[in-house]
Specification:
Elements lengths: L1 H28 L4 E7 L9 E3 L3 E7 L4 E6 L2 E3 L5 E2 L3 E5 L11 E6 L4 E4 L1 E3 L4 E5 L9 E7 L11 E5 L2 E8 L3 E5 L8 E7 L4 E9 L4 E4 L12 E2 L16 E6 L10 E4 L7 H5 L4 E9 L7 E5 L22 E7 L17 E6 L4 E12 L1
Parallel strand pairs: 2-10
Antiparallel strand pairs: 1-3, 3-7, 4-5, 4-8, 6-7, 8-9, 11-12, 12-15, 13-14, 13-16, 14-15, 16-17, 18-26, 19-20, 20-26, 21-25, 22-24, 22-26, 23-25
Length: 372
């Protein structure tokens, strides 16, 4: 009998302990958090008042175990996405655009909420360039960009404009979109995107079929007397198929090397402005390239008359993504005409040289200058 009473006593004490512990736990969860500061996760001594999406931060204070969620503007981060102790909370600034911006970080708990001024830097939607600026009307163009997924760009909420001609986005990834070029898209058209979900716009770097400062297009502009010029046969079976009329093609077999020598892209045919010659770092040389084979040992030069020794154009400017496909290449003009060259006189010319002992199949069109 005594043993039964002892057992009952132990059970009652146990239940009382659990009740007291539970009560304390409930009270702890209902205590409002105390905020101290926000810091980078790797430098707890440096306070932050702003951060970029994706940054890892630490929030220091007290009673942070009671936090149910953290709000950045109106975007919530739940406990499953952060780690908390009583005095510190670790989390990542959410990569999501808020509907309402108040530039505040809010700690929410059953015991109350506390807010702190914290600005989340929201990047702008960007279009950075076209895979081929001379994509033909009616064909599908690839346009590179940034933060496309952040702005949830898709075919239902985003359209591309070529000047005043509008066409829907076909496909979107985080790095590029595709769209059909309108049949009546004009040359030199500004390309832009409108995203209706967040009501934002972005203008693409470069222009569609830019011909403002055309150096040579092999259809009447520039030196068209070269034996390497291929005539547009208006035949869909022609390979490579012309991107916009006649083009320059350098073709050689490694077993029968051809010395291409110096070829005039244009001879005394282009009027370089004083600004182009004195400030080449403000411009880029662009052209369309169709590469038939990969090259390893070939040296490629573009030469600005005779004012300095030419430097080979490296892979940093000459990256080919798809063989047998036309794409736009951009080379900073200062790589061709160094800033401060002793004699920037051009005589209106631009020259090209390819030195190679391997298979070469390189087609070029629409050499032009554009502002950066």
């Amino acid at each position: 009998m005594k043993r039964l009473k002892d057992n009952i006593t132990y059970i009652l004490f146990g239940l009382l302990f659990i009740f007291i512990a539970g009560s304390c736990s409930d009270k702890d969860s209902e205590v409002a958090p105390v905020f101290n500061k926000v810091t980078p996760i790797k430098d707890l001594s440096t306070s932050l008042s702003s951060g970029s999406m994706g940054d890892w931060i630490a929030i220091s204070g007290a009673h942070l175990n009671s936090v149910d969620s953290v709000m950045f503007n109106d975007v919530s981060v739940l406990p499953k996405d952060f780690y908390s102790e009583d005095s510190v909370l670790y989390l990542q600034v959410p990569v999501k655009i808020p509907k309402q911006v108040n530039d505040k970080l809010t700690l929410k708990s059953k015991g109350g909420d506390i807010s702190y001024g914290f600005k989340v830097n929201i990047p702008d939607l960007q279009l950075t360039g076209m895979f081929c600026e001379y994509t033909q009307p009616g064909d599908t163009i690839k346009i590179y960009g940034k933060y496309l997924q952040l702005y949830e760009v898709n075919s239902s909420n985003s359209t591309v404009k070529f000047g005043d001609k509008e066409t829907p986005v076909i496909k979107s990834t985080d790095t590029y979109i595709t769209a059909k070029v309108p049949a009546d898209a004009a040359s030199n058209a500004q390309v832009s995107i409108h995203n209706s979900k967040y009501n934002v716009d972005a203008i693409c770097s470069g222009r569609y079929r830019d011909n403002k400062w055309m150096i040579a297009d092999y259809d009447g502009v520039g030196d068209n007397s070269s034996s390497f010029i291929v005539q547009d046969q208006h035949n869909k079976k022609q390979r490579p198929y012309p991107i916009s009329g006649n083009f320059l093609r350098l073709l050689a077999d490694a077993t029968h090397p051809v010395d291409f020598g110096w070829l005039y892209i244009t001879s005394n045919g282009f009027n370089y402005t004083d600004d182009m010659e004195q400030h080449p770092d403000k411009y880029v040389l662009k052209f369309e390239l169709n590469m038939g084979y990969p090259i390893k040992g070939t040296k490629f030069y573009i030469y600005f008359y005779w004012n300095h020794a030419p430097n080979a154009i490296g892979n940093d400017c000459f990256t080919v993504q798809n063989y047998g496909t036309w794409q736009t290449i951009s080379i900073p003009f200062e790589k061709i005409l160094p800033v401060g060259a002793s004699d920037a006189s051009s005589a209106g010319s631009l020259n090209i040289r390819v030195e190679s002992d391997e298979n070469v199949d390189m087609s070029f069109d629409n050499f032009r200058l554009s502002e950066k």
